[in-house]
Amino acid sequence: LHASVVIGRAIQFHATVYGINVLGHLKTPIWADHLIGLLTGGEAFHDHHHSQPTSALHRPRKGVWNRIVDYNGTILLAMEKIGWVRNLRIAPQFA
Questions:
Q1: What are phi and psi of 28, to 5 degrees?
Q2: Which domain of life is it from (predicted)?
């Protein structure tokens, strides 16, 4: 039973990662990007990964909507503020 759960989780993880990768490279309407961004923590804005691969944020730092859609980046910013993360890299256009 345990092995089937582990294998199932691994399959789910890889399907999600590859699905996000495919959707992030398609030309989709902006509403679809925002919807996928809400579901994936900002990973829908994957195109920024190619121009700034070391940036912790997928959306600009300013703007409430950007922080809501890119909540992975928001969590990283909060962790930096309380001292759990150091030397967080943010792309110049997002600073």
A1: -110, 155
A2: Bacteria
